[in-house]
Write a structure and sequence with these properties.
Largest sheet: 9 strands, mixed
Helix content: 40-55%
Number of helices: 20
Shape: globular
Strand order of the largest sheet: 8-7-6-9-10-16-13-12-11
Structural class: alpha+beta
Strand content: 15-25%
Distance between the termini: 14 Å
Length: 567
């Protein structure tokens, strides 16, 4: 807190700005700034009229983003909701207060629990949350996180999802589900945690233990309504089996007021039992593995229909039929997209060139062996075949090259290869540019089915946001037990929900921004201390915001953040 104080030196009065803060449970002066005599202050500010001047050397606090997120959490009653299911023990801040603080921190400046106190002191949150530094130590956070059981997190998320759908009138007729993983730095020999496991890292960090995270989000502003943290070595079908019952329970909450709900997911989640279980509650839109349905790939392009040009300006055609998949009859759509064809063809041609170069280089090295100009361990037919399989690893590659390996003189293998142009043309004709979709929404048009499946980018965007290093970042985790990792994931999803809802609010007021751009702009709004003086009497100090750029000014007004600056 800032205040003015006077000192009498040699019979004259001089003014100082004092900044106080809580230190070890006591209010102490942490900074003193000399302002000058009353005459000097009046001269600087202008005599006779009320003027203001930024106090030199006074602290500047982060204001815009933290004020907007705190205000939203208050309007949602988030602290009370959490405290209702996880009551606090003893004195000090409640569990809800600490988890909301952790969520705001994750949204704007992800730090360890040990670093939250330092970050907190640089923000304006202290005026509203009434927390002392010794109440937000890492140990306080860990103690309160231990009090949050998984059942409470599920219940809180259910109630919060139901509330935001109703309060924000979100369109839940089409929801989007997917899963991804995040690498962690949990030690290899840490046996207390079973969730981080080694598996196929989607970020290319296979040497690290990874965590799996499933999300279900709305098409409106990618607001998460469900999450599940699971072992990193589980594949997508295994993870969806684990959550299918909770997804069905979540349906009963979200379906109130909606005629029906459709859940959209990709082919990585396809299994007979999960599709049958989920489709008993939701309608579904998904995709099929091409190689499992060769009859659909062989349908003549002449039977495809051009989809609506206004909704799909780039050429998209579709063939519609009915087929039994996953133990029941579904409407199946075979789509062909020229843009997708071009992108896939360019990617494959790049990979073909790369494989040709690698095979050529390997063939040359074998020829050097045959001429006796290569030292080291002699290659065998088996080792050459293994190396060739490694070179041709990748989708479609083995089917596009004809390779022979045979033993020659002195036992040195001879490698011969040929690119199969006929196989490539067959691949282009049958598979490239095509997607096989299925749904039980038989009354939907082809355009509606394709649009729903393309909406999967909403959940992909949510994951991309959580992998951002600046805002709403899931990493780093800084936790080493399963229970704390689950609470960490819960606070990260809370952060994503708060930011997505905030984006929804400003979008509905005509300000269309991404989450990153919104938080970046809000971050430019700082709280500064100014001296007010009319040239007579004692000057006053009050906080105000820094100079606003036009976009920040629009957001400041749209969210009415001036309410959080005392007059």
């Amino acid at each position: 807190m800032a205040s003015l104080t006077k000192k009498r030196i040699n019979g004259r009065i001089y003014w100082y700005l004092r900044e106080t803060a809580w230190v070890d449970g006591k209010s102490k002066v942490v900074k003193t700034v000399y302002l000058g005599s009353a005459e000097q202050i009046a001269a600087a500010l202008g005599k006779g009229t009320t003027s203001m001047q930024v106090v030199p050397g006074a602290p500047v606090f982060e204001f815009g983003a933290v004020a907007a997120l705190y205000d939203l959490s208050e309007r949602l009653g988030l602290v009370d909701l959490i405290d209702r299911h996880v009551p606090k023990r003893g004195s000090g801040p409640s569990v809800g207060t600490l988890l909301v603080l952790a969520a705001i921190n994750r949204a704007v400046a992800a730090s360890s629990k040990a670093g939250i106190a330092r970050w907190f002191e640089r923000t304006s949150l202290g005026r509203w949350m009434k927390l002392k530094p010794n109440q937000i130590t890492s140990q306080r956070f860990w103690d309160n996180m231990d009090r949050v059981p998984e059942e409470a997190m599920i219940t809180i998320e259910r109630e919060l999802a139901e509330k935001v759908v109703a309060d924000y009138d979100l369109d839940v007729r089409c929801l989007f589900y997917d899963a991804t993983n995040f690498f962690s730095f949990v030690d290899t020999f840490n046996t207390r945690s079973t969730l981080p496991q080694r598996g196929k890292s989607k970020e290319g960090r296979g040497s690290l233990r990874i965590l799996g995270l499933a999300l279900m989000v709305t098409g409106d502003f990618e607001i998460p309504l469900f999450h599940y943290l699971y072992q990193g070595n589980h594949n997508d079908p295994t993870s969806v089996r684990s959550v299918v019952h909770e997804l069905i329970d979540r349906y009963r909450l979200l379906a109130r007021g909606a005629e029906d709900l459709t859940i959209v997911f990709d082919k990585g989640n396809n299994t007979d039992d999960t599709i049958q279980a989920i489709s008993a509650a939701y309608h579904v839109v998904g995709s099929l593995v091409q190689t499992h349905h060769p009859d659909l790939l062989d349908v003549s392009r002449s039977k495809f229909r051009r989809l609506d040009r206004d909704r799909f300006p780039h050429t998209v055609t579709a063939y519609r039929t009915t087929k039994e998949v996953f133990g029941r009859s579904f409407t199946v759509l075979v789509t062909y997209n020229e843009n997708l064809f071009d992108a896939q063809a360019r990617t494959i041609e790049r990979e073909i060139i790369k494989r040709q170069q690698q095979l050529q280089a390997y063939q040359y090295s074998l020829e050097k062996w045959q001429r006796g100009k290569r030292p080291g361990r002699r290659p065998t037919v088996g080792s050459v075949e293994k190396a060739v399989n490694g070179i041709l690893r990748g989708q479609h590659m083995k089917g596009l090259f004809t390779v022979t390996v045979r033993a020659a003189k002195a036992g040195i293998p001879v490698l011969r290869y040929r690119f199969d142009q006929t196989a490539y043309k067959r691949l282009q004709r049958r598979r490239l540019g095509k997607t096989l979709l299925f749904t039980d929404n038989a009354h939907w048009s082809d355009e509606e089915i394709v649009s729903a499946y393309r909406g999967q980018h909403h959940v992909e965007n949510a994951f991309r946001q959580m992998k951002d290093v600046d805002y709403v970042s899931f990493r780093p985790t800084h936790h080493w037990t399963d229970q704390k990792l689950k609470v960490h994931a819960f606070t990260c999803v809370l952060a994503l929900m708060l930011c997505s809802l905030l984006r929804c609010e400003i979008d509905r007021k005509g300000i269309h921004l991404s989450v990153d751009r919104m938080l970046e702009t809000l971050g430019t709004i700082r709280e500064v201390q100014v001296v007010l003086s009319s040239g007579r009497g004692r000057p006053r100090v009050r906080p105000t915001h820094s100079k606003l750029e036009p976009l920040a000014e629009d957001i400041f007004a749209a969210l009415d953040l001036g309410r959080y600056l005392p007059t």
